[in-house]
Amino acid sequence: xxxxxxxxxxxxxxxxxxxxxxxxxxxxxxxxxxxxxxxxxxxxxxxxxxxxxxxxxxxxxxxxxxxxxxxxxxxxxxxxxxxxxxxxxxxxxxxxxxxxxxxxxxxxxxxxxxxxxxxxxxxxxxxxxxxxxxxxxxxxxxxxxxxxxxxxxxxxxxxxxxxxxxxxxxxxxxxxxxxxxxxxxxxxxxxxxxxxxxxxxxxxxxxxxxxxxxxxxxxxxxxxxxxxxxxxxxxxxxxxxxxxxxxxxxxxxxxxxxxxxxxxxxxxxxxxxxxxxxxxxxxxxxxxxxxxxxxxxxxxxxxxxxxxxxxxxxxxxxxxxxxxxxxxxx
Amino acid sequence: xxxxxxxxxxxxxxxxxxxxxxxxxxxxxxxxxxxxxxxxxxxxxxxxxxxxxxxxxxxxxxxxxxxxxxxxxxxxxxxxxxxxxxxxxxxxxxxxxxxxxxxxxxxxxxxxxxxxxxxxxxxxxxxxxxxxxxxxxxxxxxxxxxxxxxxxxxxxxxxxxxxxxxxxxxxxxxxxxxxxxxxxxxxxxxxxxxxxxxxxxxxxxxxxxxxxxxxxxxxxxxxxxxxxxxxxxxxxxxxxxxxxxxxxxxxxxxxxxxxxxxxxxxxxxxxxxxxxxxx
Amino acid sequence: xxxxxxxxxxxxxxxxxxxxxxxxxxxxxxxxxxxxxxxxxxxxxxxxxxxxxxxxxxxxxxxxxxxxxxxxxxxxxxxxxxxxxxxxxxxxxxxxxxxxxxxxxxxxxxxxxxxxxxxxxxxxxxxxxxxxxxxxxxxxxxxxxxxxxxxxxxxxxxxxxxxxxxxxxxxxxxxxxxxxxxxxxxxxxxxxxxxxxxxxxxxxxxxxxxxxxxxxxxxxxxxxxxxxxxxxxxxxxxxxxxxxxxxxxxxxxxxxxxxxxxxxxxxxxxxxxxxxxxxxxxxxxxxxxxxxxxxxxxxxxxxxxxxxxxxxxxxxxxxxxxxxxxxxxxxxxxxxxxxxxxxxxxxxx
Lengths: 330, 279, 349
Fold this sequence. Notes:
By secondary structure, chain B is mostly helical. Chain B has 10 helices and no strands. The mean pLDDT of chain B is 86.
């Protein structure tokens, strides 16, 4: 946009001094504003850069001391100053995996319900209700998990899992151990509830964007609703759904408060899902304020760096995929 | 009716029933969580909660200092983050809509939007708390501001892009400088949407605990000093819920109820605002 | 633009309004072990003098870290620091109060004092070698008790803790296996179990988890009505956790001999002694960064020494004996000085 009107010097040449001054002032404001906005935009980059740099800087002592071994060492001993990230990384990956295993099918099914089966007047209320699940702060999930869900699981699900799988050779190791109530499985289940709204709302948006023409053509040749979903809607929406799933995964990986309450804080890799464990964010949340010694603090920051890298990669893939679907929808 | 047809119908019926079951299950979780929250939280709700300070274990008290602390931190975070977010969004939508910087910033912004908040806390610890030598409410507010910025950037950019170009052209034709076109015309047109963004960001940070863990810490007493540890509802809930004292646990539930109510109300108001704009 | 300006102005005003300092709040952080009694003292002190104590109960490890980082006026730890470490950091330490650590359990039908445990058995449980409640080793100590076949859910501390230090020290004394496999420190590599934050977290977890066992400071067991056990002490006698048994153990302490008051009270001899008694210390700088705050803190501690004994007794903590208090005050007067060398604590006549 050319600021033709702001040519104060031209006006001044004609002798309108006051007006020239006013116009020049306006032009000054204009330039300042433009620079401010540009600086703010660069500021966003600076924040991200700052996060990465401060994380790398903080974790250097630990990385130098342990090297890549940090990633596969299980032992976490603040006394002998030997730290290994295997248990937190394992816990983070396993809880997120459990969460996605449950949230993705359930979320997709809810999206199918909302787009195909649900009566029109119910669609918005139910959609809003599911999204309210996303609005509940994670610390609420934490205390609900600790006081309600974990004891409930200790009484019901966990003993039955132990009983059912107790005699099957491989699976019994997966579900072994005293029923603590809290543990990796419980954390995974709570994460599933937290991630569900993300998967559902993105899937629903993407399902809605499928051209009705395609669906009607399928109905026209006699497909059942499920067949339309399976053979027309899902393939069309595939990329968007995966994007939504990745977004949910990113959330699950980084979730702190809900997990900290129910994960059990044990720096061990156990084969049993009912055992306590730890995740990266729970470890940092629990131990950072008490970490004595540079190597301890640095190891915790290194954990933060690992988490940031993992979520960055997952979110980058998610955004890329969503970008592709947005371009296609137009 | 051939058996193939029957099989297809059966499969369809099963899947549709499963999807209904999934929806009911999803809704059931919401109902269960909210019901427990109301049940536990309401029993502790009283005027004292809003007028008295946090008690030592075994004493009676309320949540006055965490509520005030949370209010201060949230308001300050929004005051810091909103201008930066709006300005950045303005650049992306108005001045640099198609240039390289904008696409990079948009990508980075979306990453920051979903980044784990504990990492933000670590970042602010490194750049503010460690050099300053002590925890402070200010560090907590800045950490929250870092969470506010991506939300505001996103909604500002989206809303400004929706403003029809005709409006801008009309203003320019009248001789309005670019900066004033944006502030007097575009902002006003996108006002509802931008406010929605700010409300959503506020709702988001009201419930955040992780960024405050090593920035603002917490404080048992009246804390309005930004240069010192400051109490906040999420931190107090964290501390009280993990304690074995029944009166503390009750206060934790009540605090949780207050936060959830605030967050959900803000979300609903934001949603209503967004919907009212539509023709 | 105008809206933007007024918003920024409002922001600055709000920030400035929060800036002025308030009535003195002494800040401290550290051990969860003495938190109940510190909180009680702080409440009474505030009622009397108007000055408050902001104590963050984050564990001894946290207390040591925060005082070294100078983010608080004093640190609190039940793991005493060695003389070398104190000198390197320019800190002094002095004991504030003593208490007992008790094992707590959550077994159906078991009430406080029903179960008897001894050191070696406790060590085996926490090593993961004894896995169920009806194990013969436990049954031998409890011939008449009905022990279920339930698995034992071990609960330990996830944070750096002086309580852990004293507990693990005791286990190392009574079990060579424990000493070689785990050792003792504020944080150890626990072979089994869930980690909980603070004495509070352990108490909470044991209360919530059926079949669990944990270790907490006695006030936590008492205040939260947890089921504690009896123990067999060094003299072979079965004792209950009470003021009297804690006193008996504390009476053995030779405060003058230990450098920097670093006496560990675990596994003390005597027929009445409770095997897991512990003292807890305060850490402060010899040359504090904020002399005014440090002076206020010393006033609070002096007040607590003089007026806090009865409150300590109510929670079954043991107050420090008078000769130790006098010695500590001399240390304050001699060592804690401001930048100009003036002592921050004036000895009363």
